[in-house]
Amino acid sequence: EVLTLLVLVYPLLQGLAVQLHSALTGSYVPGTHSIAFVNCLNEQIARDIARDGHASPAPLLRAIMDKRLAACVNILPKSSALYFWKGELEESTEILLLVKTRTSKIGELSNYVRSIHPFEIPDIVSLPIEQGNPLYLRWIEENVPRD
């Protein structure tokens, strides 16, 4: 029983130890921040998602920023995408948003984007940031409020 309890509690204790070490030393805890990737049909929809939150002229990019779900959103130029949709091979041109945020905000960001994105199944994925410029990571921390 004790061994089972230790196995179950170990990840929690390890996480707490890493956070305590980070707080005492000022070091970065890998995975504290993430980059989310969001594909959009065109630049206007991309800007809409990042700004105002309506999938009509110019709201998505600002909406993410206005809601403080990200410290920064990059809009990358057109790229070609090949994918299967409803059993058929499709090809389209898309715009990619790179959303830099706290990992703890990924769920809220994803829910929000899904609620306003015009795609039936929006392409939203994220990766944790393991390392980076400490000053930049601190800047993300300062610009995206905690939950």
TrEMBL record:
<dbReference type="GO" id="GO:0010038">
    <property type="term" value="P:response to metal ion"/>
</dbReference>
<dbReference type="GO" id="GO:0005507">
    <property type="term" value="F:copper ion binding"/>
</dbReference>
<dbReference type="InterPro" id="IPR015867">
    <property type="entry name" value="N-reg_PII/ATP_PRibTrfase_C"/>
</dbReference>
<comment type="similarity">
    <text>Belongs to the CutA family.</text>
</comment>
<comment type="subunit">
    <text>Homotrimer.</text>
</comment>
<dbReference type="InterPro" id="IPR004323">
    <property type="entry name" value="Ion_tolerance_CutA"/>
</dbReference>
<dbReference type="InterPro" id="IPR011322">
    <property type="entry name" value="N-reg_PII-like_a/b"/>
</dbReference>
<dbReference type="Pfam" id="PF03091">
    <property type="entry name" value="CutA1"/>
</dbReference>
<protein>
    <submittedName>
        <fullName>CUTA protein</fullName>
    </submittedName>
</protein>
<keyword id="KW-0732">Signal</keyword>
<feature type="signal peptide">
    <location>
        <begin position="1"/>
        <end position="17"/>
    </location>
</feature>
